[in-house]
Amino acid sequence: MIRFIVKRVLQMIPVVLLVATLIFGILYLVPGDPAQIMLGSTASEYELQEMREQMGLNRPFLVQLGEFLSDVFLHFDLGESYLTGASVGGEIINRLPRTLILGIASMVLAFGIGIPLGVTAAVHQNGWGDRISMIIALLGVSIPTFWLAMLFVLLFSLKLGWFPSSGIGGWEYYVLPTVSLCFGGLATQARQARSSMLEVIRSDYVVTARSKGLSQSEVIFKHALPNALNPIITLAGNNLAVIFGGSIVIENVFSFPGIGQYMITAINQRDYPIVRGCVVM
Question: Can you point out the beta strands (E) in the chain?
Fold first, then answer.
């Protein structure tokens, strides 16, 4: 197990290096002058040249790339914001717990609701339980996350006033973003659970368990479900990555001060150190 973990960690190193190189190269080619962003439209050409020199933007691409990779991977320095001068790493550390709570809560909710839905659909195959569960799963796969989030804001914030529509505070600020973010993962978990359970239910050991007179709940939860969990757990790991990626959109809809909103704001303002830092993180 330890050798497997070490191998995976070592495989991650070239991937992260490649991602860091790609994001630096992409932002280097994007139109826009960071010096102009910092000084504003009224700056003279001499002031722009001075700022470019100060920021190191006049140096060759490979020199800038080497300095960026050295700062990130040798000195653990993600740079400073062009606009505020604040440390990108420090800001990410401050926002990371909120994004982690949002992502993990969404994952737990997707896992806790999706698996029972899938098991219900498999046990009642072609019945009402199956149809209702798969309709919910179909809606979860089909509805765009940002559109669902806006519907939740209209209904539960503006109309009913149950939950706040934006910002951060107590637990109530996490409810709508968490539910919005988990819906897609919930659907994929339900479909995978149904598929896995249908394969297991037809197995010989499940038939034998039924022939011994065990109750339906014992057959399902003691014999069938444990053996169906392997592909479900594998999919859960993939869903976790999807959920954290989707948090960028959700945080922007709810003005949730996590890493996703930080990155979107930086993209709109062409604050490239923040974008690079968030992508690498």
Answer: none
**What is the full DSSP assignment across 118-179?**
HHHHHHTTTSHHHHHHHHHHHHHHHS-HHHHHHHHIIIIIIIS--S-SSS--STHHHHHHHH
Give the C-alpha distances (Å, rounded to integers) separating 28 from 20, 22, 38, 45, 59: 12, 10, 16, 20, 12
Q: Is 251 helix (H, G, I), strand (E, B) or coil?
A: helix
80 beta partners = 87
The answer to whether 91 and 104 have CB atoms below 8 angstroms apart is: no
Which residue matches tokens 């001068």? 85
Q: What pTM was estimated for this model as a whole?
A: 0.75
The Cα–Cα gap between 16 and 38 comes to: 29
Contact criterion met (CB below 8 Å) for 195 and 125: no
Report d(CA 93, CA 61) in Å as an integer.
29
Instruction: Give first-to-last CA distance, the chain, whole Å.
Output: 26
> 148 CB contacts (<8 Å, ≥6 apart)?
180, 183
Report helix, strand or coil for 87: strand
What pLDDT digit, counting tens, does each position of 68-118 carry? 888 888 888 888 887 777 888 888 888 888 888 888 888 888 888 888 888
Neighbours of 216 (CB within 10 A): 9
Which residues, in sequence order, are CB contacts of 218 under 8 Å at separation 6+?
Answer: 209
Specify the residue for token string 């320095």: 77
From 137, 130, 123, select the one nearest 225 (Cα to Cα): 123
CB proximity list for 76: less than 8 A, separation 6 or greater = 89
